[in-house]
Amino acid sequence: MEIEKQAAVLTYVKENIASIVFKPLHAGEQEIPDIDKLQKMEQVLREDPGLFLSKWGRYLPRDVLSQFEDLQDYEVMFYLRKLVQHDSPSASPPASDSRTRRKSSKTHTLIHNRRFEYLKRHLRESSYFSDETMQMREPMLYEQYVGQYVSEEEKNAPFGSDVNLVQRVLKDIDRDYVNEQVKMQKEIQAEQEEEEEEEEEEEEEEEEDNDEDIATNESEMSHNGSTSFGGAKTFSSPPWNQMFNEKEKDVESMSAFQQSQHDEFVRLMEERFLDGKDTEFDYSAVDYNEEYDDLEEEERDIQERYFDSEDPQDGNPPAMSVYTGKLDY
């Protein structure tokens, strides 16, 4: 970033330091002096403009933000697009640029970590990951890992006394929706499997006609066909009657298996959230919010980037102005 543009940004920051939140304070933590804030903010601006925008860009007016627009930097453009609501053509560096790919990966990691922090703080112990709400979001995935192992008696158990009439009606509607979705998906799956089976039979017949050793060929095709068909199944988990033969497995084994399947289902649902696949969730409230950054990890990353930038042929560190080289925000 050009020195003149840095100066313009820092001038505004200095004049408005009282209205800029330097960092969230923990209980009992004291605010550091303004001069220390300015020194640290100047260092971050010089070394990592993208990080500067992620932390303090929200406090800058558009004319100050425009000082960053000439930087061909993926992370900078990522935050500028959000802060000024403007998608500039210059915001997309060439896809072949290896530096762009590194910045893209860095931003992806930042977003993923913020989502994970939000998940831990607000979602993991909430109704968002209850069986009912997860089943509504992904009926077929729930059926694959949980539902197919639940007896009809459990599925149709009567409502408890604490469930009022309105709640019962809504739950019945949800239950009907889930059942319809599962039924439809199973029908589609059955049709696909039937088509695949027919195609395999046709292929077997063609190969048998061209093979002199029909018996050997039939044996090989039977083996290959069963392998191919098995791999095409949507449900990777064995059916209930295969896993647990009523009289051969005890209740403890059944419970352990069901719990492991349930845990795997929850893990997959958390992965879907982290990957941005929950379409009804407002990810922008998390992705652009530095409140969900791991500040200690971020500090270590900045220090590593700083020391990595030192000239290996020069035993002296680069000019640092008045900085100590250690960041504690």
TrEMBL record:
Pfam families: CCD97-like_C
InterPro entries assigned: CCD97-like_C (IPR040233), Ccdc97-like (IPR018613)
Ranges of compositional bias, category Low complexity: 87-97
Region ranges (Disordered): 87-107, 186-258, 289-329
Residue span, CCD97-like C-terminal domain: 113-310
Superkingdom, natural source: Eukaryota
Composition-biased stretches (Polar residues): 216-244
Composition bias, Acidic residues: 190-215, 289-301
Protein name, UniProt field: CCD97-like C-terminal domain-containing protein
